Amino acid sequence: AMSFANAGIPVTLIETTDEALKRGMGIMQKNWEATAARGGIPADAPAKRMALIDGTVGLEHVKDADLVIEAVFETMAVKKEVFGKLDQYAKPGAVLASNTSYLNIDAIAAETSRPQDVLGMHFFSPANVMKLCEIVRAEKTAPDALVTAVSIARKIAKVPAVVGVCDGFVGNRMLAQRGKQAEKLLFEGALPQQVDAVVTKFGMPMGPFAMGDLAGLDIGWRSRKDRGIKSEIADALCEAGRFGQKTGKGYYKYEAGSRAPLPDPDVEKLIDETLAKLGLKRRAVSDEEILERMMYPMINEGAKILAEGIAARPSDIDVVWLYGYGWPIYRGGPMYWADSVGLKHIAERLAFYAKETNDPSLEPAPLLKKLADEGKTFASLAQGKAA
C-alpha cells in the first residue's frame, strides 16, 4: 500500500478486523513520519500519502479496483479462500495478483472463473523499500494481464522480473540450496559465525545464520514440524527458546537494544553435544570450501531454472538477486559471476562435493554440465536466442 501511495496512486487497504486495520494504518503513518523527520520526504508528504489510502474491512470493497494484490498468510487454504471471494466481488478484467513467495499460482488461479487475470506479484520485504517485484506468469495468465503487472511495477519504482511457476520461484528456490548447505556445514564442523563471515566477506549484506535470527527461527521450526522434518541443531536451538533476535538469542546472542550478532559459546556447546549424540565428529572446514558450497549449489539451481524455462534469461536471475537479495553489484549477479569463475571449474567442484558429502543433489545440472563441456558461458544462451 505504501509503494502505491508513494507513486501517487490511490489505494484501498482491506483488513479482516478494525483493530488490524488501525494497527496497519498506524504503522504506515509512523514510517512516513520517520522518513520525513530524516529529511527523506517533504514534511507534508506523510499527510498527503495517508490521504491516498482508504482503509476498510471486508473483501466486497474490491469492486472498483483495477488491480487487486492479496497479501494474506502464506497458507494455500487461506489464499484459495480469498481468491474464491475475489472472483465474486472484483469487476471483470481486474488483474488479481498474489504476493506469495512460494505457493503455486496455478492452484490459486483455479479457484476463480478467470484464471487469465491471475498472476503473482511477489514484493520483497520490506515492500515499501525493496526494489524487486517477481512477476509470476501462471499457465493461464493472459498477455495483457502480464504487461499490466510489469508496467505498474515500473510505475511504482520497482524492478520487475518475470518468472514462471515453481516452488519458491527464482530467488527463494536458489536460496533454499544455500540454506541446505549452510545447515550441513554445521554438522561437519563449521560454526555459524565462520559461515556468515565468508558470505559477508564475499559482499552479501548478511550471512544465512544472522538472516535466520532476523526472520525468527521458530518460523522454520513450525514449518518443519508441519512437514515431519527434523533438523537436529536448529530444532535444539528452538527447544532451548532461542528464536533469534526477538528472544535476544538464536544462532547468536544479542545485547538489549542491539541487532549486532555476537558469537555465543553456548551455541558451540549445543552443536558439539548434538554432533556427539549423532555420533559425528567435527572437522576443520576451510573458508574456500564454505564459499564454494554457499555459492555453487545456487548457480546449479539457476541452471535448472533456465533449463525449465522458469526464467527466460540468465540476466533475469541476476536481476532477482541484485535487487531482492543484496547480491553485491560489483559481482554482477550469480549467473554473471559464475561465467567469470568458469563453468568448468564450478561443475568439477560440484561433482567433487556431491561425492565427498554423499549428496547427489550437488551433481552438476545437465545444462551446467553441457555448457562446461563445450567451454561455453551462461551469457552464450542469451546470445543464441538473439541470433
Task: Briefly characterize the structure.
The chain is an alpha/beta fold and 387 residues long. It contains 18 helices and seven strands.
Question: Can you give a write-up of this model?
Answer:
By secondary structure, the chain is α/β, with parallel strands linked by helices. The chain has three domains: 2-163, 3-Layer(aba) Sandwich (Rossmann fold), CATH 3.40.50; 190-197 and 216-277, Orthogonal Bundle (N-(1-d-carboxylethyl)-l-norvaline Dehydrogenase, domain 2); 287-376, N-(1-d-carboxylethyl)-l-norvaline Dehydrogenase, domain 2, CATH 1.10.1040. It is 53% helix and 9% strand. The strands form two sheets. A five-stranded mixed beta sheet has the order 3-4-5-6-7, sandwiched between helices. It has a two-stranded parallel sheet with strand order 1-2.
List keywords for this structure.
387 residues; alpha/beta; Rossmann fold; N-(1-d-carboxylethyl)-l-norvaline Dehydrogenase, domain 2; two-stranded parallel sheet; 18 helices; 9% strand; globular
CATH homologous superfamily designation of the largest domain: NAD(P)-binding Rossmann-like Domain
Assembly annotation: single chain
Q: According to CATH, what is the class of the largest domain?
A: Alpha Beta
**CATH fold-level topology of the largest domain:** Rossmann fold
Regions with little confidence, pLDDT below 50 for 5+ residues: none
How many helical elements? 18
Order of strands, main sheet, comes to 3-4-5-6-7
| Number of separate strands | 7
The structure class reads alpha/beta
Topology as H/E string? Answer: HEHHEEHEHEEHEHHHHHHHHHHHH
Helix content: 40-55%
| Coarse morphology | globular
- Report how far the terminal alpha carbons are from each other: 42 Å
CATH architecture of the largest domain: 3-Layer(aba) Sandwich
Would you tell me the overall average pLDDT? 95
Strand content: 5-15%
How many domains comprise the coordinates? 3
